[in-house]
Amino acid sequence: MKNFNFAELIFRFFRTILAKWMKTTVQGGSPQELGLDPEQPVLYAVRVPSLSAQLVIDQECTTRGLPSIRSPMPQFGEKRSYITLNQRKGSIFNKRLVPAPSERLIKSIETLNENEDLDLQVIPVTVIWGRNPDKEKSLFRSLFSDNWSSAGKFQQFLTVLIHGRDTLVQFSKPISLRSIMKENESAEKTARKIQRILRVHQRRSREAIVGPDLSHRRTLMRSLLHSNVMRQAIKREAEEHNITIEKAEKRALKYADELASNMSYSTIRFLEVILSWVWNKIYDGIEINHLDNLEKVARGNTVIYVPCHRSHIDYLLLSFLLYQNGYQTPHIAAGINLNLPIVGSILRRGGAFFMRRSFKGNPLYSSLFNEYMHNMFTRGFSVEYFVEGGRSRTGRTLSPKAGVLAMTVRSFLRDSKKPIKFMPVHVGYEKILEGNTYLGELRGANKEKESVGVLFKALKHLKNSFGKVRVNFGNAIDLKTELDAFRPGWRDEDLGEDFRPEWLNEFVDQLANRVVTHINSSASVNPINLIAAVLLSTPKQALSEHVLVDQLNRLKRLMVDTPYSELVTLPEGNGADWVKYAEDMKAISRKEHSLGDIILTDETQAVLLTYYRNSILHLLAIPSLIATLCSNNPSIERGYVVRLCRWIYPYLRNELFIHWNEDQVEANVNLWIDHLVDQGLIKLDGNCLLSPEAGSSEFVTLQLTAQPITATMERYYIAIELLRIRGKGVLDAKELEKQATAMAERLSILHGLNAPEFFDKALFRGLINILLERGVITQAEDETLHFDEQIDTIADDARLILNSQVRHSILQVTRHSPEEEQETKEAEKVEDA
Fold this sequence. Notes:
single chain, 24 strands, membrane, Glycerol-3-phosphate (1)-acyltransferase, Plipid/glycerol_acylTrfase, GPAT/DHAPAT
């Protein structure tokens, strides 16, 4: 009877009651994840003395096989195995948290000093009741939500009652107490140092989950207006428009109200419930890969999420997944066109802030937006924006628009205390929600404006299946590291007015390209991507089923044996599984035949498949280029292939954002050649590469492998031929872009190419810029384009890359413009008369 512990019985009773009410998400909650040494005791470190926190932590410890928080530490003479880092001080109505020295920790350090074989594993534990930024606009939420202030016992009771079913418990990696101790340092001093480390760790963990302390929205907006930058901007606005300071302030406040987010925990929680239902209705599952890349940078940094932009689903999905996995919900830069009635308010409360498409001619708005972003970055809020600007209508990663990125860099130059990490995210869809809309736009229809009506029309899609979504987190980019590499002495420079040094634009362009390249490096490949890549490589977008299955298996083997990057993910299963899956998704059609079924596409399916093929085009570029050279030339020297690939690579890299630099190309080309030889797709005879026997399955595979890059090479050849035919000093860059686009569109119509992006002006613009950068063409003072005999060599090389039929078609189109053909027809009519 003497061992009866009434206090322990009461503790277990309350733990049981609470466990029936609680619904927890646990991170790092197993001995294996934490990497615990079973031979050494454990000490838990919690933020504040809280019975409810002890109850939930002890319950999770019991459930997951961890030592109990209530268990004694006999080696240290202690009855409990936890410490609190802070104590509540002050009056009953004004509690605040203050650092508190732990006698238990001091005593443990003294014991370790006396026993060299002993260590103590300290595990920081964070408990968050609900996950919301602290906002004081709602009295109810400010009283009962778990925030950065210190809650009294009654408030804590209500917090547990209201938010207990949305609780996160995070066990962090253990810290070896002995590894921090120093010789001849007192136990008290060591304890203070350790508790500081633990408090910083707790603060960063909490920021990563709930975000920094966030004040009332209107207070935030007014604080922006009182900054030195905005006071000057308001003064300039008043002077330029001859209005009073008060009126200029009201104008700025109106802009701020239009811009600022109003993140609301209740809205986020509501959206989580709604979106969970939506995702379950339209998707077969959501797969997350490489989340550990985010875990490495989430604490102590301002994280800027930079996803690819394929759909409006992107930002909803990313915020949903971050919230579900215990990370801070980001503030999202959204176009002002999404600030629709009702919808805009919901998005704003979900974290969206709305930006105008153009700041031109409105310096007050520009200054306010810059100041708002600076406030977000320096206070540690996670932010999300799309460097591509708008959604990709073709499936390709678009050339980055660096406006918001430039604001980010300028903010960091102004105040670099808070590290900024860019987190690239690739979202891969098997079927895009806006597919039919994109299809209409690619065929020439006007872009459909966002409206409430469009939103309601989208609800009909809830009855359809859109396959699986894969979200891959890439390798983070550290802004300070990038600046140090580009401009080592940037900290000591005069960065100019508004922090716009002369080298800023060049650095931002480089950084923007690095961001989109990192997005591509974390691409997810799905069955629809692979089927699109194979079927669209055939003349009629049709193949016998058994041939298609074989080609799909070969393509996957190519990607597995010579991976583009360690972050690229490939689908499970094999070609037969994928064909059946794509057929169920209605991405392809089947024609039954006595000699074997044929898999084919109709016109609509073919155009949509180009979208999914384009999403992985950068993964296929190098092997496709090698296959092109080998399939068009029965015998070609290996060194010549390598040289041509090195010459062409900058154009491919510019268009497809491939991650290898030019010094790495030769090694990668040789690696791919060796792999294609190993697969029997090309043969090696001394220093010559030979194509396989015509008609063989290997030759068919080689030709199919060659096709994905053909359109890029055709665009390249169209531009070169136009320059040669028109002559030096005739065309300027804009006119070359215009004529090349028209020629490509004509070629597409004449030859039935189901790839609308083939005549995309932006692709020709990028090609012309690279030709200028590499000195292939030059620009005179009158902006006309000039070139030398080097262009003839390039045209000769094109004969090795494009087959004779394609070259002939391009020559026909480029040598006879529509105007010339019209003149010829009119002349023929006159002669006939």
